[in-house]
Amino acid sequence: MIIDEFSPDALSIEELFFNQNVKTALHVAQARGIVLLVGYRNNIPTYEYTPLQVKQAVAGYGRADKIQVQKMVKTILNVETLPKLDDITDSMAMGICHAHSAKFSQKL
Predict the structure, then answer these.
(1) Which string of b and e fits 38-74 if b means at least 16 CB within 10 Å?
(2) Max CA-CA distance within the chain?
(3) Both ends of the chain: CA-CA distance in Å?
(4) pLDDT, tens digit (0-9, with 9 covering 90-100), for 83-102
(5) 43: left (phi over 0), alpha (psi -120 to 50) or beta
(6) How far is CA 31 from the centre of its chain?
(7) pTM, rounded to two decimals
(8) Residue 49, strand partner residues
(9) pLDDT digits 0-9 by tens, 11-33
(10) 73: closest CA among 59, 56, 52, 87?
């Protein structure tokens, strides 16, 4: 299991935002439920952040567009290229947000 392989200290997930697409919202809610359950069962604290908080932490502006966030993820992580899937880059941004979070600092 990936949790056993990497032994994370914390999990961070995006706060749910329901838009017009109910089908997508249901899939996201199901995936979120799995993450929350895995965190709970493995005694790993889970933190939630809004898209605005993630953009603020990564790009310095809560209304930054996807391209700005991607450029900042590359810069912060000092990598030349990012994975092709936007979801992976989004999760990297979420991790950066959590690392910059006061909540995380207090746990150490």
Answers:
(1) ebeeeeeeebbbebebbbbbbbeeeebeeeebbebbe
(2) 39
(3) 25
(4) 988 889 999 999 999 998 86
(5) left
(6) 13
(7) 0.83
(8) 14
(9) 999 887 766 677 777 888 898 99
(10) 59
